[in-house]
Design goal:
Blueprint: E1 2-6, H1 21-32, E2 39-41, E3 44-51, E4 54-61, H2 68-79, E5 86-92, E6 99-104, H3 112-121, E7 126-131, H4 141-145, H5 154-166, H6 168-172, H7 176-186, E8 201-204, H8 209-212, H9 228-255
Parallel strand pairs: 1-4, 1-5, 5-7
Antiparallel strand pairs: 2-3, 3-4, 6-7, 6-8
Helix pairs in contact: 1-5, 2-3, 5-7
């Protein structure tokens, strides 16, 4: 059995916050795969069902973000679920909006929800990091993540959440790389054929993966195609040089 965790804060006042994108992700998965109704369980809201033939429990801890581990730990112990079968969806300020990374284990990067989970279940669970961007100043981070997504964010957020939900079967099977590939294709950021895959895979919604690594307002450092006029000029110069070489060779032969 797999345990999919969405991190967030309970209550309607937090529903649209960037910090609640984990809740949004598991809500979208539940809807896409016909899960049963959410029920109060394990100090959270739980819904169970199947994805790609695998039994999955979706859990939204209702303990507030800083105590998420209490809910997750209770569920994991009761269901006897190993760390490797636990997948957590959460907001990541160190990723640009629309970017996604998946990895197993690693640091918590100051995220209180992860810190609480690691304290209760260990550290080697699967992390689906959903980029929400950084306000630019450390002092504004708390206000930023506890603010709602802007209306314009729906352009990348909805396709990304839908793609994650449709590709969730790959996570249920433990195939993180294929999950990322499927999300990339569905979200409009298909990977280039033959591209080398790193263990910590990245995709950005709505854009090719390489283009997503560049700020939207900065020019791309791609080689420009040669201008036709420039090509003609180069050909003329080459022809003149060749004719001059032949003429000089002829004169030299005549003087000997």
């Amino acid at each position: 059995m797999k345990l999919f965790i969405g991190l967030g804060n309970p209550g309607s006042e937090y529903a649209g916050n960037r910090h609640n994108v984990g809740f949004m992700a598991v809500d979208r998965i539940a809807a896409a795969h016909g899960f049963g109704p959410w029920k109060k369980k394990f100090q959270g809201l739980a819904a169970d069902g199947e994805i790609a033939g695998e039994k999955v429990l979706l859990l939204k801890p209702q303990t507030y973000m800083n105590e998420s581990g209490r809910s997750v730990g209770e569920a994991a112990r009761f269901l006897k679920i190993e760390e490797a079968d636990i997948v957590v969806f959460y907001d990541e300020i160190d990723l640009a909006p629309g970017k996604l990374k998946v990895k197993t284990g690693g640091g918590n990067a100051g995220h209180n929800g992860l810190r609480s989970m690691s304290a209760h279940i260990g550290n080697e669970y699967v992390r689906v990091r959903i980029g929400v961007g950084h306000p630019g100043v450390k002092e504004l981070v708390a206000r930023w993540v506890l603010s709602d997504f802007a209306k314009a964010d729906a352009a990348w957020l909805d396709p990304l959440l839908d793609s994650m939900a449709k590709s969730a079967g790959r996570l249920a099977k433990g195939d993180q790389a294929r999950f990322m590939t499927d999300v990339a294709k569905l979200a409009g950021g298909a990977e280039e054929p033959g591209a080398k895959r790193e263990p910590d895979t990245t995709v950005a919604a709505g854009r090719p993966a390489r283009a997503a690594d560049q700020p939207a307002n900065e020019p791309r450092s791609q080689p420009r195609a040669a201008h036709p006029a420039g090509e003609r000029a180069n050909k003329r110069q080459s022809a003149l040089a060749e004719n001059l070489k032949k003429w000089l060779a002829g004169r030299k032969g005549g003087e000997e």
